[in-house]
């Protein structure tokens, strides 16, 4: 006997009020990219959040945040930043089919759905070519990855403190111990304007100030920092040198997972091991908060061999000294709902809307 069909519906007000708690029950364990704080921030740049629940026979299977944007002449675009929140391909296809049915049933102006699911791949060949067969059968097509964490480094926290530090690269372990011997102290800072100013300064100095990292506008980034901190999900960390932060990071804990969202350092003022010690303290705190893993959020793709190839190459090597192996997600896809409108979106619409978005919001991109 086959299982009941998966159905998508809009969340109730009660479900929305406890949304971030529901994320912990998702198959992926939760992600800040589908949180209420992300939704509130995206609302400031013309994306409208739609909270969606997937259920089978009245039993909730997962939830996801859908961002909706009105596109003149074409209709509405749905975008899922990191989802649907399944971790295997057949389940993803079932979720996408249910999402398509929801759009056709209750949001008939939607012309396409863009999604970037948290499905890890073992072969780089799986990141190229047509959409995998279960998605292609629905009409989905591959598109360029959107999120900067399409390749990332993830560290399991489900082990003792000794086992955790022993899993790091030897040099990484030595750097942590050196910073401890040198008396470096990790502090937590409040989500204040002063803290924001220090973090903005240090983020611009990543890679000695030459990394050319794509940074969101201050108002956008501060909305996230403030929102997660207010919800008790975000925390700033710093190591001071001569009274001011020389290295900083920002960690988010959502559901069962932690995320190293932002960071920066002033190379000339940082002693060896400070950055390693900062990440180590974040991991210990994430573990104490109940997180089962920490995502270090973004490294250079596998094809990059230098910073010239990708600005995150050097930072990625640092992150991999904790994780020891990379995680590559399957990529991003479009599911056309209205073929004609989607063709226009591909041909010119997306470029025009992205250009207008960048101009209006001084942002780095549409998504």
Automatic annotation (TrEMBL):
Source superkingdom: Bacteria
Any Pfam family the entry gives: Acetyltransf_6
Residue ranges the record marks as coiled coil: none
Keywords, sorted A to Z: Acyltransferase, Cell shape, Cell wall biogenesis/degradation, Peptidoglycan synthesis, Transferase
Domain BioF2-like acetyltransferase: 168-300
Record-stated family: Belongs to the FemABX family.
Name of the protein: Peptidoglycan bridge formation glycyltransferase FemA/FemB family protein
């Amino acid at each position: 006997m086959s299982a009941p069909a998966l159905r998508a519906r809009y969340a109730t007000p009660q479900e929305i009020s406890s949304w971030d708690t529901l994320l912990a029950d998702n198959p992926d364990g939760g992600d800040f990219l589908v949180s209420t704080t992300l939704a509130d921030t995206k609302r400031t740049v013309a994306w409208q959040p739609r909270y969606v629940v997937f259920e089978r026979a009245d039993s909730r299977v997962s939830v996801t945040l859908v961002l909706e944007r009105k596109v003149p002449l074409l209709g509405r675009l749905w975008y899922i930043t990191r989802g649907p929140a399944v971790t295997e391909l057949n389940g993803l296809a079932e979720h996408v089919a249910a999402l398509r049915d929801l759009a056709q049933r209750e949001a008939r102006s939607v012309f396409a759905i863009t999604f970037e699911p948290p499905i890890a791949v073992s072969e780089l060949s799986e990141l190229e070519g047509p959409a995998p067969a279960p998605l292609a059968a629905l009409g989905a097509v591959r598109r360029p990855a959107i999120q900067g964490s399409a390749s990332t480094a993830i560290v399991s926290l489900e082990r003792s403190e000794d086992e955790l530090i022993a899993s790091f690269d030897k040099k990484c372990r030595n750097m942590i111990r050196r910073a401890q011997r040198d008396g470096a102290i990790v502090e937590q800072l409040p989500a204040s304007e002063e803290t924001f100013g220090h973090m903005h300064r240090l983020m611009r100095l990543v890679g000695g100030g030459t990394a050319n990292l794509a940074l969101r506008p201050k108002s956008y980034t501060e909305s996230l920092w403030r929102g997660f901190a207010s919800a008790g999900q975000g925390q700033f960390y710093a190591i001071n040198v001569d009274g001011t932060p020389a290295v900083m990071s920002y960690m988010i804990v959502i559901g069962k997972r932690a995320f190293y969202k932002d960071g920066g350092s002033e190379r000339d003022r940082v002693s060896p091991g400070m950055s390693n010690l900062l990440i180590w303290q974040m991991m210990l705190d994430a573990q104490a908060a109940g997180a089962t893993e920490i995502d270090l959020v973004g490294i250079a793709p596998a094809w990059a061999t230098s910073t010239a190839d990708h600005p995150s190459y050097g930072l990625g090597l640092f992150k991999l000294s904790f994780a020891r192996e990379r995680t590559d997600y399957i990529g991003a896809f479009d599911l056309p709902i209205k073929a004609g409108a989607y063709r226009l979106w591909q041909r010119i619409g997306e470029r025009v809307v992205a250009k207008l978005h960048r101009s209006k919001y001084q942002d780095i991109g549409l998504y």
